[in-house]
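Please produce the structure of this protein holding S-adenosylmethionine.
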Amino acid sequence: MQFDKNKNVFVHRWYPFVEGYSKEFIEDILNELPFAPTCALEPFCGSGTTPVELQNHGIKCYSFEVSPFMHLLSTVKLGRKYNVETFAHYVKAVTNKLSRTSRNIRKIETLPFGDTIVKREYSRKWNFHDTAIDGILDIRHAIRTIIDDDDYKNLFTIALASIIVQASNMFRNGKCLSYKKGWETRIFNRKEIHNFFLDKLNSIFAEDIRIISQENPTVHNSEICYLGDVRKSIQHVPDGEIDLIITSPPYLNSRDYTDIYMLELKVLQLINSHEELRALRKNTLRSHVQVSYERITPIDNGRLKACLSEMSNNTSKTWNSDIINMICAYFEDMQFLFSAFSKKMRKGGVIYFNVANSAYYGVEVPVDYIIADIAESCGFRVREIRKARDLKTSPQQSDKIGKLRESVIVIDY
Ligand SMILES: C[S@@+](CC[C@H](N)C(=O)[O-])C[C@H]1O[C@@H](n2cnc3c(N)ncnc32)[C@H](O)[C@@H]1O
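Below is the modeled complex.
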């Protein structure tokens, strides 16, 4: 299921997204369905695997994504209005511009916001060496000033996004960004950064644009890929129209996607202040503790209550009531979503819901079983909980809990 398989696949390879699933996951579902779906829903779009693959199969798909970066990535991958000549024209123009960059780019392009972006007088660590960020600002400036068509501007912005971590001093380390080994001495010059970008454009982007320019999609899922919190915006989907939902929500693992994609959000100026950052986090599904929520009463579910009670028996000095509140909030969000799905779906529709179990305070939370209960309480029938693979637990839980099940819940309406 893992996105890893997509890393050499047409369009999906434009930006490697660790938390996504493979296109085969979607294809296998389409092959096993006893009917031809006509209208699908993906509430947690991420890098767009579901709407992109369904578009490739001519299936309409409403999708929602709260992160402006992931939303941009998905709409660019869904766009498909690019042609070889215009693409080549802009590559040439941007290449020319990058051969004559301004000596002091920071006078015309603002640095991303935040104290850790570049070295300051008292910093011990910084995200980019000066020459690397200047190279990135050169590219951002060239895209902004040379390209006068939004579709291509966004396409080139994704090519820039795909080299940001490579150009930085960081790497994605599970739940967070960490510093690369030897980052202090590995310093890219401006030209090297330009070349990372131009190489990407001239290789995989150019190859894929050649294929895209011969395509003629029958559906355009980019027009129904919405930016925002699905809990607030699912009303865009007409009632009773959906016959297929394929999705993988954030897992109950305290991982905040805003943190993991922070460099892209800041460098592309999609987030420009702490207030904007807080607002984005507040709109994400409640699967992390980066923002605090009001006290939540657990939903009426026996398995959840049993877990919470066992956790409270294991109380130690590491007890954090925000975690308990997050667990309660997560299932409240799930209940809200399944109740909304029941309005949007048509009888006979199917949901494929990819989740993983979690562990806190030495207790395993059977997320798949609890979500299955929630689905049944909202009028669905759970056909099967299919095990996908085992995941490692966090080091704090590993002595008490073995592996954690990742599964796909197959649900009929
Ligand atoms: C596991 S990823 C989805 C991956 C996707 N299946 C793929 O293959 O790329 C979950 C996504 O849900 C998004 N998300 C979190 N809270 C959301 C919300 N309230 N509304 C919409 N999207 C949300 C996250 O930003 C993240 O991109």
